[in-house]
Design goal:
Largest sheet: 5 strands, antiparallel
Shape: globular
Keywords: Signal
Amino acid sequence: MGKPMRAASIALLTALPLLASCDAPATTPMATSRGVQGPIVSACRAEVARKVGVSVAEVRPVDVIRTPSGTEVRALAPGRKAPWACSANRDGVILSVLYTGWS
């Protein structure tokens, strides 16, 4: 192996760990909880129920993810295959409620 090829190989091997870290998500959850209740979960369940047209009792939260910027609640509603994602800021204000599936 010539000197240019060896230098390129060393540079590539040195850069690989740095490149691998590029796939990390921009925000990593601080905590994930299942079955957690609270004011944000209740507000998100109500918003999902309103959008779907079902009772709040029919909306089942499956994940609560706390991040530095707030909370995301994922919930299942009848007749939908994918969960709904509800985002709230740190003050508990609901910012968005979106269906994560296609139909």
